[in-house]
Design goal:
The chain is an alpha/beta fold and 251 residues long. Helices cover 44% and strands 16% of the residues. The protein is built from twelve helices and eight strands. β7, α11 and β8 form a beta-alpha-beta unit. Bound molecules: 1,3-dihydroxyacetonephosphate. 1,3-dihydroxyacetonephosphate (13P) binds next to β8.
């Protein structure tokens, strides 16, 4: 049985103080949920404080990005060594917003995945097709390319540690969720791509989250699908009480 992982992605929202308050509230609300892993992806400026506020609880903190070098002349970037030094355990990589606005390629994302793994960070590798790609029948092709690119060159042991987040771009922030059946069908295809790359043991164990307008009303039905192992939640993760309902659905 795969454990569900419910992760929030705050994106570029909240002040440091608001972030701290939300984590304090969340850790009190979700302390009893033992059957789900809970992660919050926060802006980098808050990570150190949030790691302290969440310490000793079942709420883990993720970075939303990182640079795939340990240190050096990369102005404005943050390294996996820095993340580890403040107790961060997860990093969201290859989010569609980074692919779109910051032109991140599969090759660059692959470097980040490898670097994260080398430093003991759990990568949450985001993939997903755009609307025109779905409408022109390219969903599998696009997701397959992003999985193959993002996980290229990993050993079986490394591949086992990667969390995949399937986020159809047309469902992000639009209120248009994939139906549970539609999401399930795509998750199954993605798992098959992972099987072809790394074998059945890895693909059976890989956590594949769904993301894209997941909310308190639709989370339970989505996560009830056999190949949907949790969620990567944007807007509905900003409020601790709303996010708690989604976490409960995954517990
Ligand atoms: P929304 O839940 O706001 O649609 O965002 C999904 C997402 O991009 C999470 O990474």
């Amino acid at each position: 049985m795969r454990r569900k992982v419910v992760a929030g992605n705050w994106k570029m929202n909240k002040t440091n103080e608001e972030g701290i308050e939300t984590i304090k509230e969340l850790r009190n609300l979700v302390g009893e949920y033992k059957n789900v892993d809970i992660v919050i992806g926060a802006p980098s400026i808050m990570l150190a404080d949030l790691a302290k506020v969440s310490a000793g609880s079942n709420v883990k903190i993720a970075a939303q990005n990182m640079y795939p070098k340990d240190s050096g002349a990369f102005t404005g970037e943050i390294s996996p060594v820095m993340l580890k030094s403040i107790g961060i355990e997860y990093v969201i990589l290859g989010h569609s917003e980074r692919r779109e606005y910051f032109h991140e390629s599969d090759e660059f994302i692959n470097q980040k995945v490898k670097s994260a793994l080398a430093h003991g960070l759990t990568p949450i590798l985001c993939i997903g097709e755009k609307l025109e790609e779905r409408e022109t029948g390219k969903t599998l092709e696009v997701n397959s390319k992003q999985i193959k690119g993002g996980m290229a060159g990993l050993s079986v042991e490394e591949a086992k540690k990667v969390i995949v987040a399937y986020e159809p771009v047309w469902a992000i922030g639009t209120g248009k969720t994939a139906t549970p059946e539609m999401a399930q069908a795509t998750h199954k295809e993605i798992r098959k791509v992972i099987e072809d790359m790394f074998g059945l043991e890895v693909s059976n164990g890989t956590i594949i989250q769904y993301g894209g307008s997941m909310n308190a009303a639709n989370a339970a039905e989505l996560m009830a699908q056999p190949d949907i192992d949790g969620g990567l939640v944007g807007g509905a993760s900003l409020d601790a009480k709303v996010f708690e309902v989604i976490i409960k659905a995954g517990n």
